[in-house]
Amino acid sequence: MELFLLSNGKLSGESELLGYAKARLQTMLQARKITSAVLIPYALIRSDYDARAKELSDALGIQVSSIHHAESPAEAIASAECILISGGNTWMLNQLLHENSLIVPIQRAVRERNVPYVGWSAGCNVATPSIRTTNDMPVRNSVVLPALNLFPVQINPHYIDAHLSGHMGETRDERIAEFCAVNPSESVIALREGSLLQVSGNDLSYFSAKDQGFKVFRHGHETQEYLDTQAIQSLVPFNCQ
């Protein structure tokens, strides 16, 4: 299994999509001799699907086609060399994955054919067991459907622990702590901007373009910041096979 789970698509001031992860992505693409990928852009609401596909083609140096052109989305996934899932609204994305009957085809492609999966923001969220730790509003509906469950732990992308002056609502830490209090058997990995988790086979690695750590939230445990993925493996059983 090959997963790239990115907190976000671009860093502040960065013009190229996936630029901070480009070296890692191209190493994987070249090693596997991948020349094309299928983009699932369903999370995009105010952006053009084909424009996003072209942006990715230019960034990665491969041919990227948007799945909305396919007569059969499931067949497009069945023949894909690589799967790219864009950021945007996680609720919209997960709903359309179900409506287009893509949950099982993606799971089979990644788990059985070892097709690389690259997801950022919403695309990162749907790789986990559910989208309950997304930051997005449920613009499509309020039903929490199962997600792809390729990665066994909930993730909160775009994590920030700043407390804005004058903001009287809950902080992100407080919101995630609430999730863990209601779901005490589950953990949440908080990924800051410019960071990613990579799964290769059963090996897990972490990268941050800003040399920042990630946090692991678990009910009854002190929340800490880590740079070593052993923290994930020691807190929760990790097995992507």
UniProtKB/TrEMBL annotation:
Pfam entry (one): Peptidase_S51
Enzyme class: hydrolase
GO BP, sorted A to Z: proteolysis
SUPFAM superfamilies associated with the record: Class I glutamine amidotransferase-like
EC number: 3.4.13.21
The organism's place on the tree of life at top rank: Bacteria
UniProt GO MF annotations: dipeptidase activity; serine-type peptidase activity
Keyword Hydrolase listed: yes
Keyword Secreted: no
Transmembrane segments: none
Alphabetically ordered keywords of this record: Dipeptidase, Hydrolase, Protease, Serine protease
Database matches in InterPro entries: Class_I_gatase-like, Peptidase_S51
CDD domains: GAT1_Peptidase_E
Gene3D superfamilies named in the record: 3.40.50.880
UniProt record similarity statement: Belongs to the peptidase S51 family.
Stated name of the protein: Dipeptidase PepE
